[in-house]
Amino acid sequence: MRNFNIVRAFIIPFVIVFATITFAQQSNNNAFLFDGETSQLFVKDNDPGDETGFDFFNSSNSYNQITVQAWIYLFGDTPSDVKVPIVYRKVMGGTTFSLYVKNNKGYFTVGNSAPVITTEFPAFRWTALTGTYDGSDLKIYLDGDLIITETIGQIMSGYDLDDGSGLFVGNSSDGAFRGLIDEIRIFDIALGDNNINGSGGNGNPAEPFPSSLDEYLRGQWSFKEIDPVDGLLHDLSNYQNHLTIVPTIQVFPSKHLPFFIVTSILDDGDELPGDGNATSFNGEVTLRSAIEEANDLEGQQIIYFYIQGTDPIIQPLSDFLPTITQPVILDGTVQSGYSGSPLVEIIGTYGGLTVTAGSSTVNGLVINNSSGYSLTLSVVGGNTIEANQISGILISSSGNNINGNDITNSTGEGISITVGAENNQIGVLSSNDIFGNNGYGISIVNTNSNQISNNTVGTNTLGGIYLTTSTATITGNTITGNLGFGISLNTSSRNTISGNDISGNSSDGLVINGNDNVVDSNSVTGNSGLGLSVDA
């Protein structure tokens, strides 16, 4: 199976609606989404603000203590052995401090020291990371608990600056953060254990700190909103080091996140449809419960997969999964262990998906319905299907984009495009491999204006690409090794067939029955029957 190397960062559409201990601030309830590619926040040394908010540490022996805190939510596991930055102070030759994630573990360094490291933690939950240094001991905390202390002694004070010096969040030359950040804080002391906050879990991730710590606060960025006047993320401390945002970043409620995470391979339904949680009767989120919940809500929903402790194989046992009637994104690329090829499988007699809502995306899944087509696109089109392995697609809606998939082992056609399905693009952006199906590789019947480009179509039982009473543009495909013809036009006129490699098929290479077809620059060789058969 191919390595599916399409990478897509989904931007989630969402409408934002904004006792005895005295706290310095109220808990915020929003977070910023970082896309794992270009998202970054920063303030340079020469930008407006009081730079002593972040350049104090290690500027001299008098400033040798620091605490750095962050509340984060990973979208999937971090890439293997990649340093994924949360927040760091960049200077010439390195950093004065850096808090980052690698292999789903938190890391904290000061003055380019060796890091202290947390235990591994899972994605798709709020996680609190805190690093402290008191001039001798370097510590790191996970969710409020001290994980390790390393005595590193006094680090060398002083550093030089260059044009790239400053405070940076979420992006570096090493990697880029993918997920949500709720809050970042910097103090000029090493906070004690009793003042290290964990995560609020289902509540606000970053809990307030006591006002007694306010005098030590050097920076506080609650990722609540982008300032409507200057477009910056404002520093809530007295130092006013507001962060520039590149590129535009979206803001989401950190308390009730607008997506569902499938964590169970079981098939239980949604316990309370419409409550926004998708929790099934087994207490976890199943694919069935997530679809049921998405169908009960307005607007496009996102369903991620993060199944741990077992092979991520989902087999509906007694009934087909619900038809998808509201726009949805199904994203299997964040499943633990994903490295380009789909891991999450939907299999069995009831293992198919039907999408009628339109404007939906299916990405990074294996869908293998043993009793029929594995994916049906009908009613409303405009869907994106990419980087999957699918046992047959039936299309009766328009404007769908099918790119970068393996389409194999179908009980019928690899792709069947039927009446009502127009302006579909198959392989235009990225080639599909369509092979080993029991019918035709691609069948187009009684419909017009579809484009089939750049695909590899081979070893299909009945033949490669078959059209009847239809028009299409068929360009740049490799059609080889099919057990029937290469391309066949049956009572089909005004088609364009160009730039295809049609070879090694078990019958005729190109069969034309129709008028006004344009056939240009094809390579037709080594087929068992005629190279070209025309009955116009």
Give the tags.
mainly beta; 2 helices; 2 domains; elongated; Jelly Rolls; 536 residues
Number of strands: 45
Question: Which structural class do you get from the secondary structure elements?
Answer: mainly beta
Strand arrangement, major sheet:
16-17-19-22-25-28-31-34-37-40-43
Count of domain modules: 2
Intertermini distance? 40 Å
Range of strand content: 35-45%
Question: Whole-number average pLDDT?
Answer: 93
Question: Unreliable segments (pLDDT under 50, ≥5 consecutive)?
Answer: 6-27
Shape: elongated
State the oligomer.
single chain
Tell me the CATH architecture of the largest domain. Answer: Sandwich
Q: What's the helix count?
A: 2
Largest sheet: 11 strands, parallel
Q: Determine and state the CATH class of the largest domain.
A: Mainly Beta
**Under CATH, the topology of the largest domain is which?**
Jelly Rolls
Brief summary of the model shown:
This protein has 536 residues and is an all-beta fold. Helix content is 2%, strand content 38%.
Helices and strands in order:
Blueprint: E1 30-35, E2 40-44, H1 52-55, E3 66-74, E4 84-91, E5 94-102, E6 105-110, E7 116-120, E8 126-133, E9 137-142, E10 145-151, E11 166-169, E12 178-187, E13 217-222, E14 244-246, E15 251-253, E16 260-262, H2 287-295, E17 301-305, E18 313-314, E19 328-331, E20 344-348, E21 353-355, E22 361-363, E23 365-369, E24 375-377, E25 384-386, E26 389-390, E27 393-395, E28 401-403, E29 406-408, E30 415-417, E31 425-426, E32 433-435, E33 440-445, E34 450-453, E35 456-458, E36 463-468, E37 472-475, E38 478-480, E39 485-490, E40 496-498, E41 501-503, E42 510-513, E43 518-520, E44 523-525, E45 532-534
Parallel strand pairs: 16-17, 17-19, 18-20, 19-22, 20-23, 21-24, 22-25, 23-26, 24-27, 25-28, 26-29, 27-30, 28-31, 29-32, 30-33, 31-34, 32-35, 33-36, 34-37, 35-38, 36-39, 37-40, 38-41, 39-42, 40-43, 41-44, 42-45
Antiparallel strand pairs: 1-12, 1-15, 2-11, 2-14, 3-8, 3-12, 4-5, 4-11, 5-6, 6-7, 8-9, 9-10, 12-13
